What does this fold into?
Amino acid sequence: MQKQKVVEVSGLYAAFEHEVVLKDVSFTANKGEVTVILGGSGSGKTTLFRHLLSLYPVKRGSVRVLGKDVTTLREVEQVELYHQMGVFYQSGALLNSLTVAENVALPLAQHSDLPAELIDEIVYMKLGLVNLSHAFHLYPSQLSGGMLKRAALARAIVMDPPLLFCDEPGAGLDPVSLEALDRLILNLKNKLGMSIILVTHEVSSIMRVANRVVFLDKGVVAFEGQLVEALHSDHPAVQEFFSVMKSDSMKELLK
Ligand SMILES: Nc1ncnc2c1ncn2[C@@H]1O[C@H](COP(=O)(O)OP(=O)(O)O)[C@@H](O)[C@H]1O
Ligand SMILES: [Mg+2]
It folds into this structure.
């Protein structure tokens, strides 16, 4: 049976001034899976995300998210779709003047009419999901790097989005914190049935969480398929990436 698609991109083009970043990008992401977007630095992964999130208009090609063509949505439909997407931004910083709980509550406070006590309860539950219940009243400056990332993840899922976008969530984390974050991502998929689109370069993360891999190279998708197929791809750029990855994994094993 064909899997339901949560993201369908076809012929997407994107350019800044004279630099063409995405030439002709096409791929799909399945419901209930973790799809990892790979590609070198500057290959357009964040630009692609911004199109999926409707932060950039689609000028050429088409983008469907959760079955909706993002270019033809009326404003009210756009808002509705936006509420179904959680986002963990690359620069995903929390606001330092607010407590962790207040940061996590922000989307609910802004986009729902829920009473404050209920918002507190939801926030407490979400902090529990990322193992941060004890940080409810703390300020971001009192948290470690791994805890900050987990708090940002709690904020991204506070509205229970069926679709979660994470742009390099593990960047800068030590291996133990990274593994904890990966476990949470897998929990969101396995226990809450979320579909997750993840940009990461982290060798170990890809092996742990990816169902499907989309490899961006020179403005096009060089490879799209299951993780195991990616490991055996004959595309030179994909091979090169995974040969580094294999040797990195070996190094980790030998440590
Ligand atoms: N807002 C912008 N204005 C001009 N150029 C941009 C902008 N955003 C990204 N770029 C350029 O587009 C290319 C792809 O960037 P990006 O999508 O951030 O790549 P990645 O996330 O894969 O590292 C880079 O060369 C970057 O300099
Ligand atoms: Mg980026």
Remarks:
- The pocket of adenosine-5'-diphosphate (ligand 1) is lined by residues 16, 19, 21, 39, 41-47 (CB under 6 Å).
- The first helix runs from residue 45 to 52.
- Strands lie at 5-16, 19-30, 34-38, 60-65, 68-69, 85-88, 163-167, 195-199, 212-217, 220-226.
- The two ends are 43 Å apart (CA to CA).
